[in-house]
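for the writeup, i need someone to sanity check this before i put it in the appendix. the sequnce is what the collaborator sent (i think, or maybe the updated version? ugh). structure was predicted straight from it, no edits. if anything looks off just tell me and ill rerun, i have time this weekend
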Amino acid sequence: MKKRLLVLVAGFFFVFGTIAKADEGMWLLPLLKQLNIDAMQQKGFKLTAEDIYNVNNSSIKDAIIIFGRGCTGEIVSEQGLILTNHHCGYGAIQQHSTPEHDYLADGFWAKTIQEEIPTPGLTATFLVRIEDVTEKVNAALNSDMSEGDRNKTIAEVGRKISKEATDGTGYRGRVQSFFGGNQFFLLVYEEFTDVRMVGAPPSSIGKFGADTDNWMWPRHTGDFSVFRVYASKDNKPAAYSTENVPYKPKHHLPVSIKGVKKGDFTMIMGYPGSTQRYMTSSEVDERMKISNASRIYVRGIRQEILLKDMQADKAVNIKYASKYAGSSNYWKNSIGMNKALKRLKVYDYKKANEDEFAKWVNADPERVKKYGDALNLINEAVTGRKELLHVSQYINESLFGGTELIGIASSGAQLYEPLKSGKKEDIDKLVSMLKNRSVNFYKNYNAPTDQKVAKAMFRIFAENVPLQNQPDIFNTIRTKYKGDFDKFIDEMYSKSIFVDSSKLYAFLAKPTLKALEKDPAYIAARSINVKAEEIFAKMDPLNQKLQRGQRLFIAGVLEMNQGKAMYPDANFTMRLTYGEVLDYIPMDAVHYDYITTLDGVMEKEDPDNWEFVVPQKLKDLYNAKDYGRYAENGKMPLAFISTNDITGGNSGSPIMNANGELIGLAFDGNWEAMSGDIVFEKNLQRTINVDIRYVLFIIDKYAGATRLIDEMKIVE
């Protein structure tokens, strides 16, 4: 590996200042020995780099999983027991809930291993190894390639490398880009598809505080759930079978109930999804004024409609609970991010850094030749796509993402060409795909609710997108329906075959082009798709220009900072972050302690507010001070904060002490540092973790699921 690629980067916020503090950074595991282990040990870490990541022997990485498709989990027993966040397991909990057995409201605890519930579609994925393949990929690239050709070549070479590495192993591989396309790693995984639900607290514990407390500290949310990964009798991945047995992991995390104190070393391993710490000032402006602004506005209106229907009908609440939570999460994140970006004057800081970069580039003709166009390319692309991005965001937020009927009708629109050509094989394939998708869609769909949403979403789109960028269906509404959106929507929902499963299945049993072409939801969806494709085609050359500018800019930053410890942006690959338990001062005259207790739950209790209802049994345990061995000084610890550098995707990640023992589950960031995906603010940024003692207390004393405690290696 070349030295330039070994000496990787801190977030761009600090590129021109100090080298990253120990608590900043999402570090790649194979590079820990070269870059981080000495600093970690000086900070208090008691283990070695090999204890964290080892290809040939068991290590901590073998206990960390991708939970589902977007979270992290950890193995905490020799029998494949998984801990993750409640909000990560939320979809599975919702999947198994009915009005008669409402596990979201009431919680669920399997009394025996036989009662653990299979969860189709849920996966647990283990990292096998990471390999630097930069030289192999770069050998197929040249500087004359367009970004489109470059991306195509990278994908082709990546597939070849992955295939060679995994053929005959049962593993799957993926080559991923780092540092904006300047470095490439092969990641090899083993995926298990038999994952079963074991336990979950009621939402009044696992989601306590809900939207109000989301992204906030002090926090009192018991954000955890329990699952188990199953395998064949030879401990290999296998489709669900009653013959499968609990998976025997290479490593599982010991669980410490010794507690935490200020200054304690902390380490988190998991799968941070995405950061943009090399974002320039023009991109920050774009994020605030276009991407975040549209998300805040559109989702705010949609969520108000959803919540009203959810509170009025238990069945609707179950159907929409997971969808609402997912939407609300990044709606509030966008609000907080814009506030933090403005408060911390990130635009100005980025601009100053870019000026320093330009000065460095212009001091050397060779650097001008290599990097002189970088910032110009970025700025030109951002300026050129401004209106197009605005339209694209509104299409995604209000039409595709906001109106569910349009989403399912868009899937149905794929039948058009096969029906037109009459190719039975293609028709049968798409019919089967639609049938499979529709099962989950209609299980969690309420047409009257979606109809209300659609009326608001179509109107919002029409009011905020210029006429020339609106799909033709909006011209139809203005002419045929005289601008009466409600009339159009009512007719679409009364006549479309996509509104309910019985109509769709009847159509799919004997699909015809005539029936599809006259369907109003299909007509609307096709019109929207045509416009979306047109907008994308116009944006594509600008996006390629932006990508090239970013790649050159990051390459220049790497060269400018040779000799400094640097890390790439998050991209949902396993990373390690280390720091300490620490309080903070969010504003003048305000101090936040590093830990909360069950006392805070009782202080926040409001039986008239669904977000702050407290279960009677939890109140009984509190009043009796019946905390078992999990208490500290007569109080029940609940959550704590640390300086670890995380983002979305890290949810459910284990936070460990200096001995590699589990002390909590990471589940959130703090409001004052919502700009953290773009800059790391060392004085403000904190990770919010549910204390493992509270997790065990709920499992043991509240749920009576002591059998799960008995599986774990408890360190007292």
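The domain at 575-715 is CATH 2.40.10 (Thrombin, subunit H). The radius of gyration is 26 Å.
thx in advance!!
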